[in-house]
Fold this sequence. Notes:
Layout: E1 14-16, E2 19-21, H1 23-40, H2 45-62, H3 67-77, H4 86-98, E3 105-110, H5 116-128, E4 134-138, H6 139-148, H7 158-167, E5 170-174, H8 183-198, E6 202-207, H9 211-218, H10 220-227, E7 231-235
Parallel strand pairs: 3-6, 3-7, 4-5, 5-6
Antiparallel strand pairs: 1-2
Amino acid sequence: MTTQNATPATPTGRIVFGCKLSVAKFEAWEAHAAQHRRQHDRDPYDYEFEQWLRRCKERFDKAGFPERPVIWLRQWHRGEVEAQNKTWLAHWERVKASIGGPGVTLALTGGRGTGKTQLATAAGWHICYSGRGAIYSRAAMLFTRIKSSYGHDAKETEAKVLKEIIGTQLLVLDEIGETRETDFEGKMMANIVCQRHDYGRDTILISNQSDESLARSVGESITDRIAEGGAIYTFNWPSFRRVGV
């Protein structure tokens, strides 16, 4: 398991509209733009940027991130507020560099109000504006949704829920360990996280527990996945809510 100070390698690529593309994708983008100029005698970037931005916004809006962190994130992007502190910003840079690649399982631990959900929301924005999908859910709500699929009048099946949860590029599960998990919930979480890891998806687990308590709560199968290229980032400072941030 890497430490919170380890910096994952950043893949080679180019920046287009704020998103890192692989060299191959960047070259394909440039070739398409050049062909468009020859055929239509105009630059396609303005129109294509508008369409790209609309699709990215739709993905992020559907991801389900809480409204308050989303508002903060937009203010941060506009330069109206600053990052929570230097360690928070360092955590963010490492998380951003590690997601969107071959898939990692990460954990954010620490007390309430320390910016964990804000960082995960920023990660969701980064993935959605890189052309892929993200889903945010509190762990208890996810289990409720799965159990509801077993009813006779259920609007969705367990298979449909799991396909959506396992298939998205980034899954953020918040409030891990807030309630006493049943044996069913523990096995279901392990199944979801392990399948996502094996399929090369990114998962972020958020908990108010200590690192040790989280490890006991999620079990060996998930901690092994975190150890394989992932990391636990500790938010060990006072609540920003209590100091008026």
